[in-house]
Amino acid sequence: MAKPAGDAMATLPSWTEPGLVWAPSVLQTDDDGFVLSYTSLDSRSGLQCVGAARASSPLGPFVDGSDDPFVCQRELGGTIDASPFVDDDGTPYLLFKNDGNCCDITTQLWTQQLSADGMTLVGDAIALLETTEDWEGPLIEGPSMTTLGDSYWLLYSAYDWNSADYSVGLAQCESPVGPCTKRDGPWLANHGDASGPGGAEDFTDADGRRWMLYHAWVTDKIGYETGGERSLFAVPLDLRSGEPVARGLSEDSAD
């Protein structure tokens, strides 16, 4: 069994506050470094924003010596849910969500190119998707991108994370910067004992097999305030007729 290796970023930058750091993701760069993206409270604006810290090992210690967040769309409610993506040519990108649901602003999913070391934003942020469908409710969030077959695929979560209505959507993209077209959704909804799935990310194991990770409520109590619990799930990710499928779940979770 794996053992905790300690605090990956024990020292926080001056712009944020202890106890308010969450949603980590790690990018391995082409110079054998590692960049930790995370969400935290920007004490100056009172909004949630994304920071970036660098280390020479995935175990840390990660260091963020900045005076300001790495990405903070203050005019759009702040920024959360950073997720890295590396294209086949080695170009890194960072996907994120503007946290507009905090302030009655439309939520969108964004992407922006990164420098080779992952510590500098290149060009402008590009909006890929926004809230448009009834099943998405008031927001979309949690973007992650992958390639399967000849296409780029964007996974995202929608609705209220603290409810059984939370679900995963899917969009096909022409490139890491779009344009993206939504598939009818939700792509992954309640199934079996799992309610409100979200936070989908994919990975390839040591044998070259593709998997998708996501979390879901697993008791008859939904929401932390009722004593509910969420667990982490892993399912094989395949292509069927040119479309991504979570093997063994897609038929059961169709809307």
Characterization of the model:
It is a single chain. By secondary structure, this protein is mainly beta. It has a domain at 131-253: Tachylectin-2, Chain A, CATH 2.115.10. The protein has one helix at residues 250-253; strands at residues 21-28, 34-42, 47-55, 79-86, 92-98, 108-114, 121-130, 140-148, 151-158, 167-173, 180-182, 195-204, 210-217, 230-240, 243-246. The strands form four sheets. A four-stranded antiparallel beta sheet has the order 4-5-6-7, with no helix packed on it. Strands 8-9-10-11 form a four-stranded antiparallel beta sheet, with no helix packed on it. It has a four-stranded antiparallel beta sheet with strand order 12-13-14-15, with no helix packed on it. The chain is globular and about 45 Å long.
Summarize the structure.
The chain has 255 residues and is mainly beta. The protein is built from 1 helix and 15 strands.
Class derived from helix and strand content:
mainly beta
> In angstroms, what separates the terminal alpha carbons?
37 Å
> Sheet bearing the most strands, described?
4 strands, antiparallel
- Global outline: globular
Fill in the keyword field for this structure.
255 residues, Tachylectin-2, Chain A, four-stranded antiparallel β-sheet, 2% helix, globular, Glycosyl_Hydrlase_43, hydrolase, Glyco_hydro_beta-prop_sf
Walk me through the topology:
Elements: E1 21-28, E2 34-42, E3 47-55, E4 79-86, E5 92-98, E6 108-114, E7 121-130, E8 140-148, E9 151-158, E10 167-173, E11 180-182, E12 195-204, E13 210-217, E14 230-240, E15 243-246, H1 250-253
Antiparallel strand pairs: 1-2, 2-3, 4-5, 5-6, 6-7, 8-9, 9-10, 10-11, 12-13, 13-14, 14-15
